[in-house]
Amino acid sequence: MSDHATGGASHAAPSAYAFPLLIKQLLLAPLRQSAGQEIVYRGEHRQTYAQLGERIGRLGSALARLGVAPGSVVAVADWDSHRYLESYFAVPMLGAVLMSVNVRLSPDQIAYTVDHCGAETLLINAEFLPLLAQIRSRLPQLRRVVLLSDTPVAELPDGTSHEYETLLAGGNPAHVFPDFDENTRATSFYTTGTTGMPKGVFFSHRQLVLHALGVLSALAVNPGGQNLHRGDVYMPITPMFHVHAWGMPYIATLLGVKQVYPGRYAPDLLLKLKTSEGVTFSHCVPTILQMLLDAPGSTDHDLGGWKMIIGGSALTPALARAALVRGIDVFTGYGMSETCPILALGQLRPGDPGQAAHAARSAAIAAGATPAEAATGAGAITDEEVARRARTGYAVPLADLRIVDPDLNDAAHDDRAQGEVVARTPWLTQGYLHAPDASNHLWAGGWLHTQDIGRVDATGSLQITDRIKDVIKSGGEWISSLDMEALITRHPAVAEAAVIAIPDAKWGERPLPLVVLKPGAECDAATLIAHLRACADAGEISRYAIPDTVRFLDALERTSVGKLNKKKLRDTVLAR
Amino acid sequence: MSDHATGGASHAAPSAYAFPLLIKQLLLAPLRQSAGQEIVYRGEHRQTYAQLGERIGRLGSALARLGVAPGSVVAVADWDSHRYLESYFAVPMLGAVLMSVNVRLSPDQIAYTVDHCGAETLLINAEFLPLLAQIRSRLPQLRRVVLLSDTPVAELPDGTSHEYETLLAGGNPAHVFPDFDENTRATSFYTTGTTGMPKGVFFSHRQLVLHALGVLSALAVNPGGQNLHRGDVYMPITPMFHVHAWGMPYIATLLGVKQVYPGRYAPDLLLKLKTSEGVTFSHCVPTILQMLLDAPGSTDHDLGGWKMIIGGSALTPALARAALVRGIDVFTGYGMSETCPILALGQLRPGDPGQAAHAARSAAIAAGATPAEAATGAGAITDEEVARRARTGYAVPLADLRIVDPDLNDAAHDDRAQGEVVARTPWLTQGYLHAPDASNHLWAGGWLHTQDIGRVDATGSLQITDRIKDVIKSGGEWISSLDMEALITRHPAVAEAAVIAIPDAKWGERPLPLVVLKPGAECDAATLIAHLRACADAGEISRYAIPDTVRFLDALERTSVGKLNKKKLRDTVLAR
């Protein structure tokens, strides 16, 4: 290489340190500057960052002694815990690959994914030992099983070869982790579509470090709210087995804030921890937020000032408003398994609708008002604010998001023209494990295809309107199922809605809303169609999108990660 | 390479985009999301970010047409301007190297640096044409000279071959800048010691992008103050020819905030722009801050809420207090030319002395109080707060700072033990241009040697106490010249002070304070020695550090960048 292309390598001192981007570097600041800060597990176990650092050293050295070598895969099956956090660091810092097992998958799928990624080591919560017994014969590559238990274990249960705390007791707290190529694979996990077996995505040290810096920058620069700052208290409510809990454990650790790991999610425990530990920052899917709002005794908890990113599925305006009324500073995050995951954030920006109202509410709550009292007068919650928070939002730094036609031509940024969202960032999976066709499809034309349809306004704010496979094409026009679902759930009788396409001789496809009513509520198809006609009169939906009929169901089928399973819904409805 | 070491390259789609870290990527978010945001030059010229993007395209295409190729060096000699900002992007985005000329150097040194870096192209402010005429014969590699002028030019003056705005008018606003290796050199500039010719440092695209992300993260995560957020208005007061104006033009652009470029620094214009443009974030050396506070009419300006990083030399507690009284949210930044530059920031953190007082003052000022009124009661300025702001502070994310003995063993973090500060971060110059011995010395043992002496407390906060070459060794103990200077300037009669070592038969060295009194003030050596004895009684300085005498001077010699020139001061004093 020429001197120019190597940044002046010919002038570099032979001993100059080139500084690879490695996960261990994320620990530099917090271990020195936040050594006494707390990490809490279920309110029952507490440790400091200094202990986190020592336990990472112990875990790394113990795993290395067991034979975990660079490149070997360590699978973890656990609920959110301090132990999981330790594995987030220690496993990749050895040069090994952390594979987070999606414990919500079927036993078949779990066996497939653990074997497919080549895991030789499994760290497993005692709760999943019966599952392991069921699939053990299908894991021929597995050589050791480490038990994770909240209580001391007298003797190792069947199927396990080691116990986590015993291993750590014999480990070296000052273990020195080596340097290596920043492109070394650090993590891998599997993403479920609605068809076929799960597909494995993978991320390098460099990618995880850049995701942490890029996303932290985007979060932190927002004044007034929807941000993450020093002094916040972090609790994940997206599982650590799901896309690195959105990368937030890495970010929270880098920042040195107090962290709270809630184990298996139970609404009452989550609400209790929010109050007792002073949690101020979380992230979850809409279903969990709804559960937190609806849980028995939920209104006994003061949720004011809880900053919360909602992703995984669209945050509907109705849910956003319900959360705001309770004082939750709710906003949208956008991404997927393939994207590490965060691509965009729906923060209010200076001058945006609602920013002043949010400031007024925050000031009122700080002065002792209840969230409901704060949401009056200058703090009133307007439709504009709700819409802004429910909007997909702005690409984070270094994220290149476009909306394009099938030939990769850009759609106009007029908030009307739609296109597929394609992405380039420094933190996208470069393919799927052992799946070259799917990898080529994902990266067709050199852009990662999200399979989401969206529109962009003149300020660069993205609004996802549909999934490519869910979009409804009626009379040559696209109808957004997500937009229509948001409008239907605005009706007071509706609990949830899914809009699917049904074949139509004249129009090609027509939209069919599948609706679940709230308990005890009554409503008929004509009423909902009239409701949507009023929306069309107000310009919120196209007239051709008004459905001809509505189907009422008792429940909507969802995938293992809580997303509407539209394929199954379509199959079920069309089979009738 | 194995599949492991390449992050799963064997699973990567051939068309997957690896996303090199390039300066052009910093423009992705702001050009889309802040297209209408303003960039102001001296209050006279205004352009939007959209125009910035177009002008970068025009400049890049025009330079390429002139023959600026990848690897060639483009030198810029200008005061802080929108044009300089455009060159910060367009030149490196071509794959060429931006060399920022330190126009405060002597003509001899300027000729040396421009020729030494191999500049073929020079962009030069009309003001410096007489200088160019003087040194032109010593620049045999220079092939073209582009005039930068605030006013239209009828014909090209002698010595120039092109004019900037004319070039841009013929350029392509949609020029597509290529991808290349992120380790390509992007910038280079020269750092002056107090001996010998300036030495050239150099930084790659990757380094500048990582500096921007790391420093922005550190700045943005601080709640309440000493931060940079959306909605801020940025104005540099460290020149753009000095270490990329601390990298802040890249950071401010990435963030999409309003930017104000003040041209040549004049205190009255800086104060006027602060008020008229609503500037909220700046950075400068202590000397400039002092000038702003002392300028005629300065007190007519409301400086409340102006966040300001002070670096280059130590921020003394006395100056920090004087700035706080005026409402300036002043804090320390630490770094040097070799480090891109930022390594650490002296922000107040949650729970730190002064954070609550700062919050009280901010609230009072927001409610209409003057800075002086706000600095009473709960907002009173304590010595603890002043000391915290004047402290060197905390390493930013990914910065590995140690204090070590000559064998690279760590000194204790007890805020007493001292050692040389050595560093590793992803943004350190890997050597000096054409100077292998100096490069090896800089990177001895694989750590960048800052030649600063410091101590670290148990929370990881660094305090620089001296330069290695300025530290005073008396009776086997180190005496910090910086600590003593801070204590001396606390005396109301003192304007500034420099403490140097003088040889002593008994003790090896003894400290000698050189003191400049405030205009009209009277004070003698005995008074200052008594003042320091009182400091020793209070435990603020060692008893053996109390000087035997004091020398009064009319002024203190400084280097071209405003630092005390202790070598010259020593030579002068010892020669008498």
Write the layout of secondary structure elements.
The structure is a homodimer of 576-residue chains.
Chain A: H1 28-33, E1 38-41, E2 45-48, H2 49-66, E3 73-77, H3 82-93, E4 97-100, H4 107-116, E5 119-125, H5 129-135, E6 144-148, E7 162-163, H6 164-169, E8 185-191, E9 199-204, H7 205-220, E10 233-234, H8 243-246, H9 248-255, E11 258-261, H10 267-276, E12 281-284, H11 286-294, E13 307-310, H12 317-325, E14 329-335, E15 342-345, H13 355-366, H14 371-374, H15 383-390, E16 394-395, E17 400-404, E18 419-424, H16 436-442, E19 448-456, E20 462-467, E21 472-474, E22 477-479, H17 481-488, E23 494-504, E24 508-517, H18 525-537, E25 551-552, H19 566-575
Helix pairs in contact in A: 2-3, 7-9, 12-15
What does this structure look like?
The structure is a homodimer of 576-residue chains. By secondary structure, chain A is of the alpha/beta class. Chain A folds into 3 domains: 20-205, ANL, N-terminal domain (Rossmann fold); 207-395, ANL, N-terminal domain (Rossmann fold); 469-576, ANL, C-terminal domain (GMP Synthetase, Chain A, domain 3, 2-Layer Sandwich). Chain A is built from 19 helices and 25 strands. Chain A has a 7-stranded mixed sheet with strand order 7-6-5-3-4-8-9, with helices on both faces. Chain A has a 5-stranded mixed sheet with strand order 12-13-14-15-16, with helices on both faces. In chain A, helix 7 (205-220) packs across helix 9 (248-255) and helix 12 (317-325) crosses helix 15 (383-390). Residues 1-7 of chain A have low confidence and may be disordered. At the A-B interface, helix 1, strand 9, helix 7, strand 16 and helix 16 of A face helix 1, strand 9, helix 7, strand 16 and helix 16 of B.
